[in-house]
Amino acid sequence: MFVLIVGAGRVGSAVAKRALAQGHEVSVLDEDPLSHERLVEIEGQTWEDAGGRFTVGTALEVDALIEAGVQRADVFIASTDGDNTNLTVAQIVKRRFGIEKVLCRVMDPARAAWYSEQGLHTISPTQHAIEMFEQALAAEQ
Amino acid sequence: MYVIVVGSGKVGLNLSRELIAKGHEVTLLESDRRRYLVVEEELEHAVQYGDATELWVLERAGIQRADLVVAVTGDDEDNMLVCQVAKEKYLCERVIARVNNPRNLQHFKLLGIQPVVSATDLILRLIEHEVPRYGLVHLLALEEERLEIIELEVQEDAPAASKRVADVALPQGSLIISVLREGRGFVPTADTVVEAGDQVLLVLDSGLEDQITPVFAPD
Fold first, then answer.
1. Average of pLDDT values for B73-94?
2. Which domain holds residue B201?
3. Pairs of CB atoms within 8 A across A/B
4. Counting CB atoms within 10 angstroms of each CB, which of A40, B46, B80, B191 has the fewest?
């Protein structure tokens, strides 16, 4: 599988490394060149030596997406630190490049729920945290 | 009319002032606290503090009864998503979005957000009008109908020069609708002879410009 990940923060870079280790082809796009540092050190190899790809560019630039390989992507993951960027780029790649498997991180639980009803696969860490706190609280009682 | 304006920068604030002066009910939304406090001194209850990309902020502003939502923040993603949610979730029939980066225009279209206003694009068109490149000026684009109206100056060596309108070889889907000559405009007939120096107005299906330009302005 070819996995394209936009946003190499804590979440994006961890998912990228895991996917590469599992034998997938992985390409990462981030506007900050320094975010590449999160990707190095995979069993002593650099990200590129391990077979990973890294492109500097912003999510809404079509040229950057193409350079990162969006046209071949089987899975697209939007994991930048901005909900609005993630929601926008996820919808664009889905419609424009016809990628079926698009995953989108949305912190705001209300919008994560609504966009999920519209057919976008959203993942809301905030919603998960709320549920886990509630469960932990219930276990105390 | 009840209008929600998102973003109280220069555009949003002035727009809100004008709408209020015209007797419309306006709620202006601003997510930056310091800017909100400045604007609130003037607009008082007509401005609310909050991030309009969050649903509860829009709901508090009364999105369910809004006749029009205008998103004019400096951030294209915000403008796109506010309009999308207004249209698709709250069924607001009319939205207007500001495009800051003309390159993002394609994304607005893809998400079905229109009409859009791009200051950069407007200025580019004005420049095109003042300094026509290849003599071609875009006068009007009807996006929905996929039609355009363009203006071209007929060059000396153009294939169309000194030909009857009926004999000018134009692609299917285009029509000469007006000729401007010596400061006067008229609607040509099939027998009107196109002269070098004339300005001709054509209506055409979107995308035919490249075929039409060489007929009137081959350079």
1. 96
2. 132-216
3. 43
4. B191
